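Honest question from a wet-lab person: if I give you the sequences of every part of a complex, can you actually get the arrangement of the whole thing, not just the pieces? Trying it with mine:
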Amino acid sequence: MSDAAMEISVNPDRFTRGSKLVDALSKAGLAFAILAVVLYGSVVSPAFFTSGNLLNVLTSMSIVGIVVVGMTFVLVVGGLADLSVPATIACGAILSLGLQPMIGPLPAFVLAVGLAGLIGLLNGVLVGYVGINPIIATLGIGTIGLGIVQAAVGGVIVYGSNPASAEFAKGRLFGIPVVVLIFLVIALIGHFVLSRSFWGRWTLATGGNYSAAEASAVPVQAVKAGAFVITALTAGISGGLLGLTLQSARPLIGAGYEFSAITAVVVGGVSIIGGFGSVPRAIAGLIFVQLLTNVMVLDGVRTPIQGFVLGILIVGAVGMDAALRKRGVA
Amino acid sequence: MRFLSLASQHRVVIILGLTLIISALVVPGYFSASTLGLGLDRAATIGLIAIGLTVLLIAGQIDLSGGAVFALAGIISVILQREIGILPAAIVGILVGTVAGAINGALVVGLKVNSLVLTLATMLIFRSLAHWITNSQPVSGTDIMLSLALAKTYLDIFTIRSALFIVLIVLLHVWLTRTIPGRNVFAVGSNPAAAKESGIASDRIVFFGFVFAGTLAGLAGVLQSLVTNTGSPVFGSELTVAVIAAVVVGGTRLEGGRGSALGTLGGVLTIGSLTIAMEFQSVPAYVQQVVSGLILILLVVLDRAVTTKGRASGTRPALISDNPITQGGTT
Amino acid sequence: MTAVADCALDMRGISKIFPGVKALSNVNFAVKFGTVHAVVGENGAGKSTLMKVLNGSYAPTSGTIKVGGTDVRMRRPADAQALGIRMVHQEINLVPDLTVAENVYLGRMPGKWTFLRKGEMVRKAAAVLDELGAGINPRERLGNLSISQQQLVEIAKAYAAQPRIIVLDEPTSSLSEHETAALFRILRKMRDDGIAIIYISHRLKEVLEIADEVTVLRDGSMIETRPIEGITAAQMIRLMVGREVSNVFPKSPAEIGKSVLRVERISDGTRFHNVSFDVRAGEILGLTGLVGAGRTEVARAIFGLSRLVEGTVSVNGRQVSIKSPSEAVKAGIAYVPEDRKGDGIVPGMSIRENISLPILRRLSRFGRIRRGADRVLAADYVKQFSISPPDGERRISLLSGGNQQKAVIAKWLAARPSALILDEPTRGVDVGAKAEIHNIIGQLVAGGMAVVMISSELPEILGVCDRVVVMRDGRASEPLTRGELSEERIMALATGEEAA
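Yes, you can. This is the full assembly:
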């Protein structure tokens, strides 16, 4: 039969990642990169390896990190990227502060996160069920969502009115900042869901081979939509915490977070075409990117260059992903 | 179903007509020449970028970095005015757009990656460069009189910018419908496999599509900077959605293979008249954003509904014809 | 003209070996200018591979090719086109968003500088289409045409390029009788113009009508080339299938029970119509026919991967409405797809993860996959089916085709279906694995399962199935019972030599 042969010769393995050796190499590479940044930072700047600085890095990393957990699901399921993150963060931040006087801090927070989740649901329905390109869908929905949130508060900055909630968000528990703890809990939950639950397995299968997953009775549309809901919820939480710590929220509070999150996930080695990746990988990518930016800041590099470096990192990681796929080695 | 696909074919006319009627009802004196001229001038910025994007979308690609290139080109053309004079600076500004487009094109063709993801990254890079160069501050040019000259209207309606847009869109129309490379763009976007098999150099077409789109974004940015005598790193950040919305309103498909210059003209005019109408009513910018976002999403969903319904149920043409296994079985 | 110049194409000793499989073995194939040369053979006989060698898509492992008497070497389709070889594929490969005329001249549009001479192009295209008797407006957008019209445009495109050799692969599969007659007229004209025409078809009646010579391929070898005079359809069928039916296929000794899966008068509106059959417990029902006859579409629709517009499906006497695979699984139907790589496996996942995919929820508690539950499941099936290597953690894409297929079948057994549809379960697997898969199927029916097996391979159908339904052009025959089965009978039904 000629068919077997054609399968082998002209239909190269669509999914070539995951060989144990390459997997180990890429993990080692990431660890090495992180180590290199730490060493370089310690040498260049005496301020780098101080507990104060590292705690700062950890705290600012936690806010992005919460989004990274969600974004990992979007990339793994084959959803390319969620560009509505600035809108969902703004939604979380503005509403959790703005609603405080009316319904109290905790209900305000919960409602804010819930509404962010609703934006995610819209994304999810458009991407998963209607079949719209995720980047266009989330770009459009993000624009709409951001506009509505701005309209709701009249386009101005919202300030917090509940000092106790601010104290809590800025406080520490067992000597660790609360924000960091929340990030760790969400990361653990995310990791558990992606690697241990049936939902996570479905997410990986849907990203790995959509039609095979569909033919294996996986509810692929719901799984795809779910990834966007998860990202919106995490972004909502992240936004709420950001608002509480800053005690003020402007509509553009979340600008740039989508790129930080995407960079971290992609640099962590999560495949841009889906089917492969884990939360710890994405977080390792995040640690690398955050330490790198921190070292650059300490080194006196101005902020715009950081965006530049992020962009280069994305291109590099995506290019590497594509090259490895093409040669079929990784 | 017939109605839906008919409506989607002629939607530019319908949407533009509706927009004009509603605007006229809401805004008194909407059809005065000065209002129209202002609207056209406003639309020209979106329009110039949309011209480039039309070609790219027909070829089955997209460029999200247009807004950032717009800002970067404008800044460079303003900064260099002192050094080399206004006209050379403007030319260098446009060339910056060309180079940015070439980078996008080379990366998309060379790495064979999704242009959405890639231009997302280059958008970040170009935008950061703009911030970097200017230290995140707006920069201003040397000759304020030039701005006034550029903003002048001729024949009561056209500014230099809007006239340029109209001329370019007519040229684009001729190019897309009457020339061999123009028709090949459709072939590449509609069925890349067939195009390739017929000996059409799809990679080259895609590459030059990006170069073209970058150049036009650069041109739009330079003109904006000349008119406002300013270059700012935040210019153009709200343009991405508006431009995509304009092109999609014009009937160009995100999936490639279908679109027209005249449709884009209609789409640009629609977005332009909406903007002007809302500005006259002092509708805040964020509401305008909501409107362009809504238009984009609604039309993309409509497109989707029409294409999936139009296809026979239960068949998977793409999978079946792409699949070497099913083909092998024919023997 | 000398004898050498007479010979449009001379392929000698062509072999094509893919890793592990010999697709063509020492094939000699020669075509003269000014003749129509038919190539016939079963699915998988090597026709497509041979044509892909001819149009430069595949480089032959060994052998020589002469075109018009000179040795040539073709590395890509463009090389073949430069030599005047044009292919008309069975699948339409045109640009739906361009006009008919632009498609006919795709890649070779007439023009000055870059400006398109539209009038000239439309005129020339109209002339070509007129010659074909197609009655198609060259200014029409291609996507608005029917499939049969698009097929004619595909032929017009090849013809307009004024080829020396033209290959037509099942060109009439979507044409009406009238259009076929028109096509034959033009083929005769092309032949009289001295073009060499290679005509691939399953429709033997057409072959007898149009061809001057016929070559029969079987199992990757050239069996015979003969002038068309003095050969009958029956003789061709015998040459196509004529292998000894070896007894590698275990007959199912299972006891046949009551009807499990019954479909009645189902259609999807386009690809198949009014199909009815039923499978009983312990029975293997064969579903065969030529590729494109609608077999896979029927299976996918029953399993909820596409929609039915008419007809009913019942399982164990209860009518079910299935809109998604998970509903099919709930109803007790499982489906092993034809395209293993595309629809069967998630290549980046391990055997364990693949096997447990359809029943993950059953293996989970509070959303968490129970520790070791999927491992035990996978280990069981790896052992039961002797999947090699016997390591559930192995990435499934690293397995051989046969072992992948066993894992895909295992995936569905875990869901405990009462009816199992297997779509080309042994395509592309080696002989040993094939026997193992047949064994597994035998065990399943012995355990009371109802099995529908779709296969193009007649010996397999004959050896394994209790009853056989033959499909042609989206319609199904009455089931043939074991006593009525023969390769000739099935081929006759499949090619339309005998009314279904």
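Two things worth pointing out. Residues 2-308 of chain B form a domain with the ABC transporter involved in vitamin B12 uptake, BtuC fold (CATH 1.10.3470). The longest strand of chain B covers residues 139-140.
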